[in-house]
Here is the input.
Amino acid sequence: MANNNLPDKLKNEVDDVMENVIPSQKFNFNLGSASAANDIIRILLFGIKPNNFSQDAGLESMPLYHLYLQYPSMKYKLSSAFGSSIGKPGFSKDGYYYEVLFPEGIDFALKTDLFGKHNKKLESAMDILVDQEDPILVKYKIKI
Here is the structure.
């Protein structure tokens, strides 16, 4: 992550960022979204690790990450971002994080095994939806 910051001259060049910076993944930067649940702060970041992002694949495949930083220990955990983080950031309440997972995000999570051992819970939640186009609210806690 060090020495890989977005240059100042690009910070206000939205077209340049969308056309050149995001597909090339040359730089990492904070996307301005942060929330806290108890002593853990979540920050939405881009470009931390390269992945197979393609603009044609949709926003769900964009290389976004959640950095969870525990204060005051400064221990951290990095994970792929998911859910409404891609469009609108989720929220935190009573020590939990919440994200809205829309159908495209659900499909992406299942195809990529994003939730690992918890993917089966996501499949079960999909099975009980009345309308397959409805979103799912994901409630989770992070342990660092």
About this structure: The chain is about 20% helix and 30% strand. Residues 1 and 48 are 6 Å apart (CA to CA). The chain has a mean pLDDT of 81. Strands lie at 29-37, 40-46, 64-70, 76-80, 91-93, 96-101, 136-140.
